[in-house]
Amino acid sequence: MTQVSPGRQATSLFQERFGSGPAVLVSAPGRVNLLGEHTDYNGGPVLPVALERRTVVAAGHADRWRAISTLDEMMREVSPERMEHGSWIAYLVGVMRVLGRKGLNPRGASVTVASSVPIGAGLSSSAALTVALARALTGLAGRKTPPEVLIDVAWEAEHDEVGVACGRMDQTVAALARPGHALLFETGSGGITHVPYDGKIWLFQTGVSHRLTGGQLNLRRKECEVALGLCREQGITVHALAEIGMEELPRLVRALPVPWSQRLRHIVTETDRTRRAARALAAGDSAQLGRLLVEGHESLRLDYQSSCAEADFLVEAAVRHGAWGARLTGAGWGGAVLALLPPEKEARIVAEVQEEFRRQFGRMPEVWATRAGGGVRSEK
Protein backbone atom coordinates (compact mmCIF):
# COMPACT_ATOMS: atom_id res chain seq x y z
CA MET A 1 0.00 0.00 0.00
CA THR A 2 1.41 3.39 -1.04
CA GLN A 3 1.81 5.86 1.80
CA VAL A 4 0.45 9.38 1.33
CA SER A 5 3.28 11.92 1.36
CA PRO A 6 3.39 14.44 4.23
CA GLY A 7 3.01 17.22 1.65
CA ARG A 8 -0.31 15.81 0.48
CA GLN A 9 -1.36 15.15 4.07
CA ALA A 10 -0.65 18.73 5.16
CA THR A 11 -2.40 20.20 2.11
CA SER A 12 -5.42 17.92 2.42
CA LEU A 13 -5.80 18.68 6.12
CA PHE A 14 -5.51 22.42 5.42
CA GLN A 15 -8.23 22.31 2.78
CA GLU A 16 -10.46 20.19 5.01
CA ARG A 17 -10.18 22.38 8.12
CA PHE A 18 -9.72 25.86 6.64
CA GLY A 19 -11.75 25.59 3.45
CA SER A 20 -9.07 26.63 0.95
CA GLY A 21 -5.59 25.77 -0.20
CA PRO A 22 -2.51 27.02 1.73
CA ALA A 23 -0.64 30.10 0.59
CA VAL A 24 2.73 28.48 1.32
CA LEU A 25 3.91 24.89 1.60
CA VAL A 26 7.39 24.25 3.04
CA SER A 27 9.31 21.14 4.02
CA ALA A 28 12.50 20.52 6.00
CA PRO A 29 14.33 17.26 6.68
CA GLY A 30 15.16 15.34 9.80
CA ARG A 31 18.78 14.30 10.11
CA VAL A 32 20.99 11.42 11.08
CA ASN A 33 24.34 12.35 12.60
CA LEU A 34 27.11 10.06 11.36
CA LEU A 35 29.58 11.24 14.00
CA GLY A 36 30.07 14.21 16.31
CA GLU A 37 27.63 13.49 19.12
CA HIS A 38 27.35 16.22 21.77
CA THR A 39 30.28 18.08 20.19
CA ASP A 40 28.13 20.86 18.70
CA TYR A 41 27.49 22.61 22.01
CA ASN A 42 31.14 22.03 22.97
CA GLY A 43 32.62 23.86 19.97
CA GLY A 44 33.51 20.76 17.94
CA PRO A 45 32.75 19.27 14.52
CA VAL A 46 29.64 17.32 13.54
CA LEU A 47 28.98 15.20 10.45
CA PRO A 48 25.21 14.99 9.85
CA VAL A 49 23.24 13.84 6.82
CA ALA A 50 19.75 15.13 6.02
CA LEU A 51 17.11 12.42 5.81
CA GLU A 52 14.88 11.86 2.83
CA ARG A 53 12.02 11.91 5.36
CA ARG A 54 10.63 15.41 5.91
CA THR A 55 8.26 17.59 7.92
CA VAL A 56 5.83 19.72 5.93
CA VAL A 57 4.16 22.94 7.06
CA ALA A 58 1.19 24.39 5.18
CA ALA A 59 0.21 27.95 6.10
CA GLY A 60 -2.31 30.54 5.03
CA HIS A 61 -3.21 34.13 5.92
CA ALA A 62 -5.52 34.69 8.88
CA ASP A 63 -6.34 37.34 11.51
CA ARG A 64 -5.58 34.92 14.38
CA TRP A 65 -3.38 31.89 15.03
CA ARG A 66 -4.77 28.38 14.60
CA ALA A 67 -2.82 25.17 14.12
CA ILE A 68 -3.44 21.47 13.65
CA SER A 69 -1.21 18.46 13.05
CA THR A 70 -1.93 15.09 11.46
CA LEU A 71 -0.42 13.63 14.64
CA ASP A 72 -3.64 14.20 16.62
CA GLU A 73 -5.85 16.30 14.29
CA MET A 74 -6.77 18.55 17.22
CA MET A 75 -7.40 22.18 16.27
CA ARG A 76 -5.73 24.62 18.66
CA GLU A 77 -6.03 28.37 19.13
CA VAL A 78 -2.44 29.57 19.57
CA SER A 79 -1.02 32.66 21.23
CA PRO A 80 2.61 33.81 21.57
CA GLU A 81 1.76 34.71 25.19
CA ARG A 82 0.84 31.11 26.05
CA MET A 83 3.57 28.44 25.95
CA GLU A 84 2.26 24.87 25.77
CA HIS A 85 5.06 22.66 27.04
CA GLY A 86 4.78 18.96 26.29
CA SER A 87 3.15 19.57 22.91
CA TRP A 88 4.41 20.26 19.40
CA ILE A 89 2.62 23.60 19.74
CA ALA A 90 5.48 24.72 22.01
CA TYR A 91 7.78 24.78 18.97
CA LEU A 92 5.27 26.83 16.97
CA VAL A 93 4.92 29.29 19.86
CA GLY A 94 8.71 29.46 20.13
CA VAL A 95 9.07 30.31 16.44
CA MET A 96 6.25 32.88 16.68
CA ARG A 97 7.95 34.61 19.62
CA VAL A 98 11.36 34.76 17.93
CA LEU A 99 9.92 36.00 14.64
CA GLY A 100 7.91 38.58 16.56
CA ARG A 101 11.06 39.95 18.19
CA LYS A 102 12.71 40.20 14.79
CA GLY A 103 9.70 41.82 13.12
CA LEU A 104 9.26 38.88 10.74
CA ASN A 105 5.90 37.47 11.88
CA PRO A 106 2.66 37.63 9.92
CA ARG A 107 -0.23 39.04 12.02
CA GLY A 108 -1.83 35.60 12.15
CA ALA A 109 -1.85 32.29 10.32
CA SER A 110 -3.67 29.04 9.80
CA VAL A 111 -1.12 26.21 10.01
CA THR A 112 -1.17 22.47 9.37
CA VAL A 113 1.74 20.10 9.93
CA ALA A 114 2.47 16.59 8.67
CA SER A 115 5.68 14.61 8.97
CA SER A 116 7.36 11.34 8.08
CA VAL A 117 10.25 12.01 10.53
CA PRO A 118 9.86 9.72 13.56
CA ILE A 119 9.32 11.63 16.82
CA GLY A 120 11.60 10.91 19.78
CA ALA A 121 13.93 8.78 17.67
CA GLY A 122 16.99 11.05 17.82
CA LEU A 123 16.44 12.12 14.20
CA SER A 124 15.77 15.81 14.85
CA SER A 125 12.04 15.99 14.26
CA SER A 126 12.04 19.22 16.30
CA ALA A 127 14.54 21.06 14.08
CA ALA A 128 12.73 19.88 10.95
CA LEU A 129 9.57 21.41 12.40
CA THR A 130 11.07 24.71 13.56
CA VAL A 131 13.04 25.34 10.36
CA ALA A 132 9.98 24.55 8.21
CA LEU A 133 7.80 26.80 10.41
CA ALA A 134 10.32 29.66 10.23
CA ARG A 135 10.47 29.45 6.44
CA ALA A 136 6.69 29.12 6.05
CA LEU A 137 5.77 31.99 8.39
CA THR A 138 8.36 34.42 7.03
CA GLY A 139 7.18 33.51 3.54
CA LEU A 140 3.61 34.22 4.60
CA ALA A 141 4.79 37.62 5.85
CA GLY A 142 6.29 38.33 2.43
CA ARG A 143 9.90 38.07 3.59
CA LYS A 144 12.69 36.25 1.75
CA THR A 145 14.78 34.89 4.60
CA PRO A 146 18.34 33.59 4.08
CA PRO A 147 19.23 30.20 5.57
CA GLU A 148 21.39 31.79 8.27
CA VAL A 149 18.37 33.66 9.65
CA LEU A 150 16.23 30.52 9.55
CA ILE A 151 18.92 28.70 11.54
CA ASP A 152 19.00 31.46 14.16
CA VAL A 153 15.22 31.60 14.45
CA ALA A 154 14.83 27.83 14.76
CA TRP A 155 17.67 27.53 17.29
CA GLU A 156 16.42 30.39 19.45
CA ALA A 157 12.91 28.91 19.39
CA GLU A 158 14.10 25.51 20.60
CA HIS A 159 16.91 26.63 22.91
CA ASP A 160 15.56 29.85 24.43
CA GLU A 161 11.80 29.35 24.28
CA VAL A 162 11.21 25.58 24.55
CA GLY A 163 14.22 25.07 26.82
CA VAL A 164 16.29 22.41 25.03
CA ALA A 165 20.03 22.81 25.72
CA CYS A 166 20.88 22.01 22.09
CA GLY A 167 23.61 23.22 19.78
CA ARG A 168 23.03 24.44 16.22
CA MET A 169 23.81 21.25 14.29
CA ASP A 170 20.22 20.15 13.67
CA GLN A 171 18.98 23.53 12.47
CA THR A 172 22.07 23.99 10.29
CA VAL A 173 21.71 20.72 8.41
CA ALA A 174 17.94 21.21 8.05
CA ALA A 175 18.59 24.56 6.37
CA LEU A 176 21.78 23.94 4.39
CA ALA A 177 21.94 20.23 3.45
CA ARG A 178 22.58 19.24 -0.15
CA PRO A 179 21.26 16.01 -1.70
CA GLY A 180 23.97 13.37 -1.98
CA HIS A 181 26.21 15.02 0.63
CA ALA A 182 27.04 14.85 4.31
CA LEU A 183 27.73 18.17 5.99
CA LEU A 184 30.92 18.67 8.01
CA PHE A 185 30.07 21.57 10.29
CA GLU A 186 32.86 22.99 12.46
CA THR A 187 30.70 24.59 15.13
CA GLY A 188 33.62 26.46 16.69
CA SER A 189 34.56 28.36 13.54
CA GLY A 190 31.28 28.10 11.63
CA GLY A 191 33.05 26.40 8.71
CA ILE A 192 30.90 24.14 6.52
CA THR A 193 32.12 21.54 4.03
CA HIS A 194 29.75 19.47 1.90
CA VAL A 195 31.22 15.96 1.64
CA PRO A 196 29.87 13.79 -1.21
CA TYR A 197 28.11 10.69 0.07
CA ASP A 198 25.87 8.53 -2.08
CA GLY A 199 25.68 5.54 0.28
CA LYS A 200 22.69 4.20 2.13
CA ILE A 201 22.22 4.63 5.87
CA TRP A 202 20.09 2.12 7.78
CA LEU A 203 18.12 3.21 10.85
CA PHE A 204 17.11 0.71 13.53
CA GLN A 205 14.66 2.35 15.94
CA THR A 206 15.10 1.25 19.55
CA GLY A 207 11.46 1.95 20.36
CA VAL A 208 12.65 3.96 23.37
CA SER A 209 11.51 7.56 23.01
CA HIS A 210 13.56 10.33 24.55
CA ARG A 211 12.66 13.80 25.76
CA LEU A 212 15.13 16.62 25.28
CA THR A 213 13.79 19.26 27.63
CA GLY A 214 15.25 18.96 31.12
CA GLY A 215 16.70 15.68 32.27
CA GLN A 216 19.89 14.10 31.10
CA LEU A 217 20.76 16.26 28.05
CA ASN A 218 20.68 19.49 30.04
CA LEU A 219 22.64 17.79 32.84
CA ARG A 220 25.36 16.66 30.42
CA ARG A 221 25.69 20.17 29.07
CA LYS A 222 26.20 21.51 32.58
CA GLU A 223 28.75 18.76 33.29
CA CYS A 224 30.69 19.81 30.18
CA GLU A 225 30.73 23.40 31.43
CA VAL A 226 32.13 22.23 34.77
CA ALA A 227 34.72 20.06 33.00
CA LEU A 228 35.84 23.09 30.97
CA GLY A 229 36.31 25.10 34.15
CA LEU A 230 38.34 22.30 35.72
CA CYS A 231 40.56 22.12 32.63
CA ARG A 232 41.21 25.84 32.87
CA GLU A 233 42.31 25.32 36.47
CA GLN A 234 44.89 22.90 35.01
CA GLY A 235 46.34 25.67 32.85
CA ILE A 236 44.40 24.95 29.64
CA THR A 237 43.38 28.20 27.94
CA VAL A 238 40.56 27.30 25.56
CA HIS A 239 37.04 28.57 24.89
CA ALA A 240 35.48 25.11 24.50
CA LEU A 241 36.22 21.48 25.36
CA ALA A 242 36.58 20.50 21.70
CA GLU A 243 39.60 22.82 21.36
CA ILE A 244 41.61 20.57 23.69
CA GLY A 245 44.03 18.39 21.74
CA MET A 246 44.44 14.63 22.04
CA GLU A 247 47.98 15.15 23.37
CA GLU A 248 46.62 16.93 26.46
CA LEU A 249 43.95 14.33 27.18
CA PRO A 250 45.86 11.75 29.28
CA ARG A 251 47.09 14.36 31.78
CA LEU A 252 43.70 16.02 32.09
CA VAL A 253 41.82 12.74 32.52
CA ARG A 254 44.13 11.88 35.42
CA ALA A 255 43.64 15.31 36.97
CA LEU A 256 39.84 15.56 36.71
CA PRO A 257 37.47 13.58 38.93
CA VAL A 258 34.64 11.41 37.60
CA PRO A 259 32.26 12.14 35.88
CA TRP A 260 33.91 15.27 34.43
CA SER A 261 36.96 13.35 33.19
CA GLN A 262 34.61 11.02 31.30
CA ARG A 263 32.68 13.86 29.65
CA LEU A 264 35.98 15.49 28.66
CA ARG A 265 37.32 12.27 27.16
CA HIS A 266 34.22 11.77 25.06
CA ILE A 267 34.27 15.29 23.62
CA VAL A 268 38.00 15.30 22.80
CA THR A 269 38.04 11.82 21.24
CA GLU A 270 34.74 12.42 19.41
CA THR A 271 36.15 15.60 17.92
CA ASP A 272 39.12 13.64 16.57
CA ARG A 273 36.88 10.79 15.34
CA THR A 274 34.55 13.12 13.47
CA ARG A 275 37.32 14.74 11.45
CA ARG A 276 38.78 11.33 10.65
CA ALA A 277 35.31 10.15 9.63
CA ALA A 278 34.93 13.05 7.18
CA ARG A 279 38.25 12.05 5.58
CA ALA A 280 37.13 8.41 5.38
CA LEU A 281 33.84 9.49 3.83
CA ALA A 282 35.62 11.61 1.21
CA ALA A 283 37.90 8.66 0.41
CA GLY A 284 35.00 6.22 0.14
CA ASP A 285 36.46 4.08 2.94
CA SER A 286 33.31 2.49 4.38
CA ALA A 287 35.25 0.04 6.54
CA GLN A 288 37.19 2.81 8.30
CA LEU A 289 34.04 4.88 8.71
CA GLY A 290 32.33 1.86 10.24
CA ARG A 291 35.13 1.33 12.75
CA LEU A 292 34.87 4.95 13.82
CA LEU A 293 31.12 4.56 14.34
CA VAL A 294 31.69 1.64 16.71
CA GLU A 295 34.35 3.59 18.62
CA GLY A 296 31.93 6.50 18.88
CA HIS A 297 29.21 4.28 20.30
CA GLU A 298 31.54 2.86 22.93
CA SER A 299 32.42 6.41 23.95
CA LEU A 300 28.74 7.30 24.27
CA ARG A 301 28.10 4.14 26.28
CA LEU A 302 31.03 4.39 28.68
CA ASP A 303 32.13 8.05 28.84
CA TYR A 304 29.01 10.07 28.05
CA GLN A 305 26.67 7.44 29.52
CA SER A 306 23.91 8.37 27.09
CA SER A 307 23.08 4.99 25.57
CA CYS A 308 20.44 2.42 26.52
CA ALA A 309 20.25 -1.38 26.55
CA GLU A 310 18.28 -1.55 23.30
CA ALA A 311 20.82 0.58 21.43
CA ASP A 312 23.78 -1.39 22.79
CA PHE A 313 22.12 -4.63 21.69
CA LEU A 314 21.42 -3.33 18.17
CA VAL A 315 24.99 -2.08 17.67
CA GLU A 316 26.55 -5.34 18.86
CA ALA A 317 24.17 -7.49 16.78
CA ALA A 318 24.61 -5.42 13.61
CA VAL A 319 28.41 -5.59 13.77
CA ARG A 320 28.39 -9.31 14.62
CA HIS A 321 26.24 -10.03 11.56
CA GLY A 322 28.50 -8.12 9.16
CA ALA A 323 27.78 -4.38 9.36
CA TRP A 324 30.74 -2.10 8.67
CA GLY A 325 29.73 -0.21 11.77
CA ALA A 326 26.84 1.06 13.86
CA ARG A 327 26.17 3.46 16.71
CA LEU A 328 23.44 5.30 18.57
CA THR A 329 22.63 8.59 16.87
CA GLY A 330 21.03 11.68 18.33
CA ALA A 331 21.07 13.01 21.87
CA GLY A 332 20.70 9.54 23.38
CA TRP A 333 18.80 7.71 26.12
CA GLY A 334 16.73 6.11 23.38
CA GLY A 335 16.16 6.95 19.76
CA ALA A 336 17.70 5.18 16.78
CA VAL A 337 20.85 3.27 15.84
CA LEU A 338 22.42 3.99 12.46
CA ALA A 339 24.23 1.22 10.62
CA LEU A 340 26.34 1.04 7.48
CA LEU A 341 25.76 -2.29 5.73
CA PRO A 342 27.55 -3.89 2.76
CA PRO A 343 24.95 -3.75 -0.06
CA GLU A 344 25.16 -7.46 -0.80
CA LYS A 345 24.42 -8.32 2.85
CA GLU A 346 21.71 -5.76 3.67
CA ALA A 347 18.65 -8.00 3.61
CA ARG A 348 20.27 -10.77 5.64
CA ILE A 349 21.73 -8.45 8.29
CA VAL A 350 18.46 -6.55 8.75
CA ALA A 351 16.43 -9.76 9.12
CA GLU A 352 18.87 -11.36 11.56
CA VAL A 353 19.19 -8.26 13.74
CA GLN A 354 15.43 -7.76 13.83
CA GLU A 355 14.84 -11.36 14.87
CA GLU A 356 17.48 -11.25 17.61
CA PHE A 357 16.02 -8.01 18.93
CA ARG A 358 12.51 -9.51 18.93
CA ARG A 359 13.70 -12.50 20.95
CA GLN A 360 15.48 -10.23 23.43
CA PHE A 361 12.90 -7.46 23.88
CA GLY A 362 9.65 -9.03 22.75
CA ARG A 363 8.98 -6.65 19.87
CA MET A 364 10.20 -6.08 16.33
CA PRO A 365 12.26 -2.90 15.79
CA GLU A 366 11.23 -0.63 12.94
CA VAL A 367 13.99 -0.52 10.32
CA TRP A 368 14.30 1.72 7.28
CA ALA A 369 16.95 3.23 5.06
CA THR A 370 17.73 6.67 3.73
CA ARG A 371 20.17 8.43 1.46
CA ALA A 372 21.41 11.98 1.93
CA GLY A 373 18.58 14.42 1.27
CA GLY A 374 18.39 18.18 0.80
CA GLY A 375 17.59 21.08 3.13
CA VAL A 376 14.53 23.27 3.59
CA ARG A 377 12.55 24.04 0.43
CA SER A 378 9.21 25.28 -0.84
CA GLU A 379 6.88 22.57 -2.13
CA LYS A 380 4.26 22.72 -4.85
Walk me through the structure.
There is one protein chain. By secondary structure, this protein is an alpha+beta fold. It has 2 domains: 6-197, 2-Layer Sandwich (Ribosomal Protein S5, domain 2); 202-370, Alpha-Beta Plaits (2-Layer Sandwich), CATH 3.30.70. The chain starts with 5 loop residues before the first helix and ends with a strand. It is globular. Strands 1, 2, 3, 4, 5, 6, 7 and 12 form an 8-stranded mixed sheet that branches. A 4-stranded antiparallel sheet has the order 9-10-8-11. 43% of the residues lie in helices and 20% in strands.
Beta-strand percentage range = 15-25%
User: What is the typical, i.e. mean, pLDDT?
Assistant: 95
Sequence of secondary-structure elements: HEEEEHEHHHEEEHHHHHEEHEE
If helices are DSSP runs of H or I spanning 4 or more residues, what is the number of helices?
11
Number of domains: 2
CATH architecture of the largest domain: 2-Layer Sandwich
Level of helix content?
A: 40-55%
Number of strands: 12
Structural class: alpha+beta
Morphology call: globular
Main sheet characteristics: 8 strands, mixed
CATH topology of the largest domain, by name, is: Ribosomal Protein S5, domain 2
Spatial extent as radius of gyration:
21 Å
Question: How are the SSEs ordered, and which strands pair?
Answer:
Blueprint (H helix, E strand, L loop, with lengths): L5 H13 L5 E12 L9 E17 L3 E5 L6 E2 L11 H14 L6 E7 L9 H16 L6 H16 L6 H8 L4 E6 L4 E6 L4 E5 L9 H19 L15 H7 L4 H24 L2 H19 L4 H12 L4 E5 L6 E5 L5 H16 L5 E4 L6 E2 L2
Parallel strand pairs: 3-5
Antiparallel strand pairs: 1-2, 1-12, 2-5, 2-6, 3-4, 6-7, 8-10, 8-11, 9-10
Helix pairs in contact: 2-3, 2-4, 3-4, 3-5, 4-5, 6-8, 7-8, 8-9, 10-11
